[in-house]
Amino acid sequence: MFYSVDLALLIIISNEEMVWKWIKVLAYVSMFVTSTVGGEDVSRMKCADFKNTTWLEYKQGAKLQVQYLLLTRKNADCASLFSQDCLSHTKKHTSYFNSSLPTKVIVHGYRALGSKPSWVSGLAQALLREEDVNILVVDWVYGASFAYNRVVENYKEVAVQISVLINQLMKDGSTLESFHFIGVSLGAHVCGFVGTLFEGKLGRITGLDPAGPMFKSADPFDRLDSSDALFVEAIHTDSDYFGISIPVGHMDFFLNGGMDQAGCAHSRFPSMYGYVICDHMRALHVYMSALNNSCLLVGFPCSSYEEFLAGKCINCKGPFNGTCPQIGLLKNNGITVSPLLNQEKVFLLTTDAPPYCAHHILVELKVSPLDKTAEVQLTLISAGYPETELKLKLYTNETGCKRVTGHPEWLCKIDSMQLKNTGARIYRQGNIHFEYICISEFPRNRGMDPLCVKNIHIGRGVPWSHDFVQVC
Ligand SMILES: *[C@@H]1O[C@H](CO)[C@@H](O)[C@H](O)[C@H]1NC(C)=O
Ligand SMILES: *[C@@H]1O[C@H](CO)[C@@H](O)[C@H](O)[C@H]1NC(C)=O
Ligand SMILES: *[C@@H]1O[C@H](CO)[C@@H](O)[C@H](O)[C@H]1NC(C)=O
Ligand SMILES: *[C@@H]1O[C@H](CO)[C@@H](O)[C@H](O)[C@H]1NC(C)=O
Ligand SMILES: *[C@@H]1O[C@H](CO)[C@@H](O)[C@H](O)[C@H]1NC(C)=O
Fold it and tell me: Which of 199, 261, 332, 430 has the fewest CB atoms within 10 Å of its CB?
């Protein structure tokens, strides 16, 4: 069908140059027809998968092997092996690759047990739901398993191999800016090195808890940094252990301070392994949740987590001119200020379960002068959600206090607030008089004013509670 129409056209065209053009078009069409047949085959065809490696193979000196899996909206459930090798029998499946679309490159990190990363398909699906893109998954499990120091030796070699592929794709029409690399843990530094090889001209790199061990004091050349792409962002969730503690991009999101994540300490994971990497893998899970758009994950620029918790950074004025950066696919995280700032630390609180978004609540209070340091516990309650508990220390030299906490619900859905005098167990703590206590949400949502209660007396051992009228 196709052919006869095109041949008729070909005969009409007399100009030689045009003839060559049409021969090219025909070649393209025939390729397309083959690939469509390939597409119909997909259900019967075996889907491509990661290569497994075993301890035995490792001991026998298995070498670094890199392969690429391609996922697009046309084969979102069934990866095909991607190869630029013309002789490869897999060639027909690579035709799902569309060089006029942007390309996401997913790079996994260290695989302690040589197993395939289980999260890859979830991340790819979430990306494909959001954007029509080519997804290339870099499988370097063969070089990423068992002894960490040997894996670190391999990461630049992987980057070099990826850069060869990128050069090929550019010859076929992809542009450097259209590449978005997403690297998990050590994979983030692989992405960084690919970026170095292309002199920072890749479009974007996202580092999901970029690896810390052996990289913290490394030269920026050897690790992910903001010169590796036009826009580099990172999400930090385990910076005291497997993750890196320093900012490595234009925008660095530190979740809950970047070290310990809600729900990880009392992990439900049955295995020690799962327990150990819970904080580290949270960056990935939060990123996937952000791609799902179930709720907003916005951060606030601040010099430190302590300052953030002390309520000193509740708006995004200053570096971002009033716009709070958002985790997800928005260009530059939604920040339009230019030039982009470097190594901007951004803080946010998250909850312990998907979709992870916490509402940021600012607690402001004033007490009458105290004789002794006092301690109170503030509890915020929304029906159907875990309670938010906040311990407040009140000093004799300060009558005002500001603190930031995260709550799973909107301010307008807080049913009640409780206060308990908790210092009494250790020594005799007298009554505390609060001139006021106010809670507000930031960034200011739905234009809602702070909820304030005035003139509260908290006696020892007598909990106090106040119910709010729901306004939404
Ligand atoms: C990898 O190993 C798992 C478990 O041993 C197995 O189920 C899976 O089929 C293997 N995958 C490949 C591609 O060999
Ligand atoms: C490739 O993507 C472009 C841009 O979305 C689209 O116009 C074109 O039809 C796509 N090509 C194929 C072969 O799907
Ligand atoms: C994202 O949404 C899909 C479909 O609604 C759901 O199956 C998946 O579990 C969600 N993933 C996350 C991480 O929230
Ligand atoms: C900051 O925002 C204001 C209005 O919100 C705008 O008028 C101004 O141009 C912005 N400044 C920069 C540097 O983007
Ligand atoms: C009040 O005392 C505490 C503890 O002694 C100290 O950390 C804090 O800086 C003091 N605040 C002021 C305003 O002096």
Answer: 199
Please confirm whether the linkage preceding 247 is cis (ω < 30° from 0): no
The number of the ligand nearest the C-alpha atom of 126 reads 3
Kindly name the residue from 108, 189, 250, 280 that is annotated as catalytic. Answer: 280
pTM for this model (two decimals): 0.85
DSSP annotation string for 106-131: EE---BTTSPPPTTHHHHHHHHHHH-
Atom 13, ligand 4: residue with shortest CA distance: 337
Catalytic residue among 80, 95, 145, 185: 185
Residues 6+ apart with CB under 8 A from 41: none
Domain that residue 213 falls in: 10-348
Condensed to tens digits (0 to 9), the pLDDT of residues 413-467 reads 999 999 998 875 656 667 899 999 999 999 876 668 899 999 999 987 788 999 9
Q: Does one domain contain both 83 and 124?
A: yes
Across the chain, how many H-helices and E-strands are there? 9, 18
Do 339 and 376 reside in the same domain of the chain?
A: no
How many domains, in total, are found in the chain? Answer: 2
* 260 belongs to the catalytic site: no
For ligand 5, atom 7, which residue shows the shortest CA distance? 395
Q: Do residues 317 and 363 share a domain?
A: no
Q: 42 CA distance to ligand 2 centroid (A)?
A: 20
Where among 324, 348, 372 does a domain terminate? 348
The whole-number pLDDT of residue 141 equals 79
- CA-nearest residue for atom 13, ligand 5, is 398
User: Does 186 fall in a domain?
Assistant: yes
**Residue at 5 is within a domain:** no
Output the CA 299–ligand 2 centroid distance in Å.
35
CA-nearest of 367, 464, 374, 379 to 425 is 374
Q: Going edge to edge, which strands form the sheet with 400-407? A: 400-407, 359-367, 432-442, 451-458
Using the mean position of ligand 4's atoms as its centre, give its distance from the Cα of residue 321 in Å: 6
Q: Is the pLDDT confidence value at 6 over 60?
A: no
pLDDT at site 472: 78
pLDDT in tens, 43-102: 446 888 888 766 666 666 667 788 999 999 999 999 988 876 544 444 445 679 999 999
Q: Considering every ligand atom, which ligand is closest to the CA of 297?
A: 3
- Per the domain annotation, does 2 fall within a domain? no
185 in active site: yes
Query: Which of 28, 72, 75, 100 to probe ligand 2 with, by most ligand atoms within 8 A of CB?
Result: 100
* 20: CB partners within 8 A, 6+ apart: none
Torsion angle of C-alpha atoms 213, 216, 218, 223, degrees rounded to 10: 80
Angstrom distance (rounded) from CA 180 to CA 182: 7
The answer to whether the beta carbons of residues 144 and 184 sit under 8 Å apart is no
Is 398 near ligand 5, meaning CB less than 6 Å away?
yes
